[in-house]
Amino acid sequence: MYPSENPQGLSFMESLKNLGSSFVSLLGTRLALLCTELEEEREHAIRLIALAVMAVLFLLLGLVVLSFFVVVLFWDSPFRVHAIGTMAILYLIISLIAGWRAREILDARPRFLDATLTELEKDCDTLRH
Fold first, then answer.
1. At what angle do helices 12-73 and 114-128 cross, to 10 degrees?
2. Is the model's pTM score more than 0.70?
3. CA distances from residue 27 to 86, 98, 113, 117, 128 in whole angstroms, order as listed
């Protein structure tokens, strides 16, 4: 056997095809992982939204019943209107604080699929060098 001879009998084109095939396989694996991650996030988001809607609905129902209770409690009192106004102002303050906090959370969140995109950028940089 000569030193210039390929021990496996593969030509340069066959080696290049094998390399391309490996690269496509790697890319397919990354895409399959990405699809799985997206499906899991979608299912998680659906469950989270459903529970959040249920929580908000029951919270609103509880606030209506609480408001009705406070109004009935002060019905024979001259402070009936004050009780209703106080409840309304309290609800408005709570909603403003919640909205402000939600805005902070949305502004502070990382970009969508940040880790996956970072890994793909690293892969591209590795292949370039």
1. 160
2. no
3. 61, 43, 17, 13, 16
Q: Which residues contact 18 (CB under 8 A, 6 or more apart)?
A: 10
CA atoms within a 13 Å half-sphere pointing along the CA-CB vector of 55: 6
C-alpha gyration radius of the chain: 31
Determine the Cα–Cα distance for residues 18 and 35; give it in Å rounded to an integer: 25
| Dihedral (CA of 12, 15, 17, 19) sign | negative
Q: State both tokens at 115.
A: 């880790």
Tell me the pLDDT tens digit for each residue of 40-49: 888 888 988 9
CA dihedral in degrees (122, 123, 124, 125; nearest 10)?
50
Question: What does residue 61 show for φ and ψ, rounded to 5 degrees?
Answer: -60, -45
Output 26-32 pairs: Cβ under 8 A, ≥24 positions apart. Answer: 30/119, 30/120, 30/123
Rounded to whole angstroms, how far apart are CA atoms 116 and 38? 11
